[in-house]
């Protein structure tokens, strides 16, 4: 896959996270696997896609964590949503796992990104 494709998917993934995180809680879909697990998996995907798109793993981690914290802060401004420290922690853990997964797959040559 190309870096530009990963960049586009990363942007779409970030928009999806924002929409799902800021819509009224009773309208948001849930997997049934738990709130924190859903947070982690969303940010695994985001940081993986950012890492692949820009090939900057530390920056991908910082960007994904900052995005997660920003979403949590914005939730405090929306009706029917609250800011949750543990959600931000789950987001950050997911961001770290996504960056780790990307670096592992690249080292083992299981993922190749054309620049």
Please explain how this structure is put together.
- This protein is mainly α and 115 residues long.
- It has one domain.
- It is built from four helices and no strands.
- It has helices at 3-22, 35-54, 57-75, 85-107.
- Helix 1 runs parallel beside helix 3 (57-75) and helix 3 (57-75) packs antiparallel against helix 4 (85-107).
- The termini are close together.
From the N-terminal CA to the C-terminal CA, the straight-line distance is 9 Å
Residue stretches low in confidence (pLDDT < 50, at least 5 long) are: none
Residue share in helix = over 70%
Mean pLDDT: 93
Structural class of the helix and strand makeup?
mainly alpha
Q: Nearest-angstrom radius of gyration?
A: 14 Å
What is the N-to-C order of secondary-structure elements (H for helix, E for strand)?
HHHH
The proportion of strand residues reads under 5%
Number of strands: 0
What count of helical segments does DSSP give? 4
Given the C-alpha coordinates, what overall shape results? elongated
Largest β-sheet summary:
none
Output the keywords.
115 residues, mainly alpha, 4 helices
Fold blueprint:
Blueprint (H helix, E strand, L loop, with lengths): L2 H20 L12 H20 L2 H19 L9 H23 L8
């Amino acid at each position: 896959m190309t870096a530009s494709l990963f960049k586009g998917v990363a942007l779409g993934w970030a928009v999806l996270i924002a929409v799902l995180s800021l819509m009224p809680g009773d309208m948001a879909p849930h997997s049934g696997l738990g709130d924190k697990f859903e947070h982690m998996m969303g940010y695994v995907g985001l940081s993986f896609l950012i890492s692949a798109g820009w090939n900057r793993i530390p920056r991908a981690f910082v960007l994904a964590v900052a995005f997660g914290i920003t979403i949590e802060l914005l939730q405090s401004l929306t009706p029917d949503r609250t800011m949750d420290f543990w959600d931000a922690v789950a987001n950050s853990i997911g961001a770290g796992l996504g960056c780790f997964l990307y670096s592992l797959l690249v080292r083992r040559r299981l993922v190749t990104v054309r620049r």
